[in-house]
Amino acid sequence: MKILFIAHTSFNQIGGHERYSHQFANALATSLGGSNVLFWPVEQSIPLRKIDDQVYTFVSPLLYRNLWFRRVFHRYLLFRGIDRIIVDTAHLAHYAQKVANFLGVPYDVMTVGIEVWGSLPRWIMEPLMCADSVFTLGCFTRDQLVAKGVPLKCIRVLPCHVDVESFFFDRNDTYRIIREHKLEGKKVILTICRLAGQDGYKGYDRVIQSLSQVLKEVPNAVYMIVGEGSDKPRIQRLVRKLELTDHVIFAGRVPDDAALRAYYSACDLFVMPSQTVISKEICKGEGFGIVYIEANACGKPVIAGNAGGEPGAVIDSVSGLLVDPMNVKEITGAIMRLLKDEKFSHQLGQQGLRRVREELSLPSLQKRSDAYLEYIKAQKSERVGMNWLDTIRKLL
């Protein structure tokens, strides 16, 4: 069996969406063989590089940008015998449908959240309705799709997963972070996210607003924000206005996965109370929130918003606390509870770690991937393929 995996970009970009696509493509390639899963990052803008754990085969994004190259590549796919197409975003579903129709094969669409929450134009909705399967990160996005008319039987829930084994406690890396940011003896509250203007819904400003009250009961608390973006100047002005300069640390961009794990390990609590908004004008919120389960993979408790996809990533009072993301008082109370009650905080972190190991680890993803492959193998055996005459005509 051979699969063409059309991605919006490659794992060179290290956001949650890219990790999600990379891990699923890798799981498929682990079962089918690397040469049988072609990963095509069509909107890639930076040079491709091989990732350490990469199993699948990269296809150059240049083949998408040139119409003549694209036509030749489509015929190569027909000759190669592609059996299935997967696209990792609804915005490219129309293209996946076009290629699938040319090859005479089914296609599936992966969705991550906000891109399918609001009203959808016909050029997105029509290929979603015609897809064999539509993947969602959780029940919230599933329900949004069902409300739009996507058949429930076509929807597959595939949550984010993490490589739990890679989230080990590396003392050297963690101590380097502690020394670099002078965190000795501090209670560290952590947020890792982009500070882009469009990502202001992630709630880091409301955490800052809560900090004045937190410091009255936990005077050694510091809030560390890891990430860069256009919203950073606004947040820095807020910090100065509230006279919290000595208690808020802007750590900048995460250089690599080792540093990412070190930041999680150095904190006492991860918090990102994202707001969920769905309207005709704008949609914002977390489709799932891989950062929550990454923090849990390091044994850390988390605080998240109580709407959108976050309740799928965080189980309230089991792996973390869910709060009203617009209620600063509620955010403050949750932070103080976890910083002051070390036993409860440790319990949530360990329960979160256990849940990630059992349900959201890479072996769990492999099981879900293999079940999906069994489904499409059974479907392939029932499907009537294209006859040789039609194949020759298309090759020409």
Give a short summary of the structure.
This protein is 45% helix and 15% strand. It has helices spanning 16-32, 62-65, 67-80, 93-103, 122-130, 139-147, 171-180, 204-217, 232-241, 257-266, 290-297, 310-313, 328-340, 342-359, 362-382, 388-395; strands spanning 3-7, 37-41, 57-58, 84-87, 107-110, 133-136, 155-157, 187-192, 221-226, 248-252, 269-272, 277-278, 283-284, 302-305, 320-323.
Task: Give the key terms.
single chain, 396 residues, alpha/beta, Rossmann fold, 2 domains, 7-stranded parallel sheet, 6-stranded parallel sheet, 16 helices, 15% strand
Strand order of the largest sheet: 3-2-1-4-5-6-7
CATH first level of the largest domain:
Alpha Beta
Low-confidence stretches: none
State the major sheet: 7 strands, parallel
- First and last CA, distance: 24 Å
CATH topology of the largest domain: Rossmann fold
Strand content: 15-25%
Q: Number of DSSP strands?
A: 15
The second-level CATH architecture of the largest domain is 3-Layer(aba) Sandwich
Radius of gyration: 22 Å
Supply the number of structural domains.
2
Full CATH superfamily name of the largest domain: Glycogen Phosphorylase B
* Fraction of residues in H or I helices: 40-55%
Give the mean pLDDT: 91
Output the number of helix runs.
16
Give the helix/strand class: alpha/beta
Given the C-alpha coordinates, what overall shape results? elongated
| Quaternary structure state of the chains depicted | single chain
